[in-house]
Fold:
Amino acid sequence: MIYLDSAATSLQKPKQVQQAVIGAMLTAASPGRGTHLPAMRAADVCYECRENLAKLLGDSRPERIVFTMNATHALNIAIGSIVSESTRVIISGYEHNSVVRPLHHKGVTPTIINTPLFDRDAFMARLNEEIDGCDVVITTYVSNAFGYVLPISDIAKLCHERGKRLIIDASQAAGVLDINAKELQADFIAMPGHKGLLGPQGTGVLICGSDATPLMYGGSGSQSAQLDMPEYLPDRLEAGTHNVSGIAGLNEGVKYLLQNGISEIEQHERKCLEAFHEAMSGFGNAKLFYSEERQAQSSVISIVPKGVTSELLAERLGAHDIAIRSGLHCAPLAHETVGTFGTGTARFSFSPFVSVQDVLAATAVVCEIISTSQK
Amino acid sequence: MGHSFIIMLRSLTYAQRASRLLERAGIYSSLTKAPQGATVKGCSYGVKVQDRYVDYALQVLRGSPLVIGKIFRLEPSGDFSEVDL
Structure:
């Protein structure tokens, strides 16, 4: 299979990931629930994973790395901690439903910075105009639908200068681009474990730069005699038994990234993106959303094929053992901003385990399917 | 076997961080759960170090950003008492 859907879930992972998952199932119990060897082994795995994540993401405090079920869970904690009905919120026009829906649920109507795709200067200019009227900025680092890399350092800098709080959805950036949490100093940075971090599904991470309000209450294995959740992190936000097997796998995914280097992986994925663009740009029957500005696009590219729907293209590619994603990608707002709400897009995303040859083989089939559909 | 000391930390994660710090300083420690009678809030964690290492361990931990809680002297019998070191 040629798997070009890592922006949804990275299917291909280092072998150590699955070995660690199975190993933890066989040997690790639950951290903080005992002092016997299996419990301490689980505690070791979780702590090592926090340490490695802290190293990868530029934060020196492992206790500020909170495990969640996924990025949506992490974002719900973040939003629940600093946004109420009366909070004035700015979001980018490229947000996923994991941001849009929690805000809607809270009765918040955010100001949307819906500037053109890949135009980072326009985004900053508009944010600069709007920021004084808000309390909190919530932005994705990278658009999941289009791979648009927002100018996150500039956004963070502006938020600090104006005394605004900041939540970053790093779902498409973690493991793909360099993240320096210490430099960004965001209140919260949320990410899943199962995409670029190469961990299993059901894992997520929240980096807490601020105090947080629990989303769930229950056993934490600590301060058990008191009714409130512990006041310190990570225990405050980690009620219930951890997904230790998942965390063990995530730890191996993160170790792989630390060993291989984010910048090397980024360069490889950029080659895949450029190969895709080069192969498709001469083919006139698809609209490509591609930026020549290297820093404005990650390893995700969307197209709108002509003469065939994105869904049918994805389905037919599937029959050729090529996996992509079609539709709105849970980000209708991004499609409204770009003008593709009516059609959706066919999205191709790359990973360390996809070669340029794979990409070229896939584009040949894409062109063939689209050409055939037009006859 | 002589007595040992339990240096309490805020949580299991902080105790793990302390244990790693001590390890880097060449001090062997083990993670331990505090005896129930030793804490008011219940289920607390610390690092256990042998008598001969306790002063150096405290020096290392006090020189770090970690906040140290109570310190208990633990007898081989399991009896414990809070100490001021």
Notes: The two ends of chain B are 21 Å apart (CA to CA).
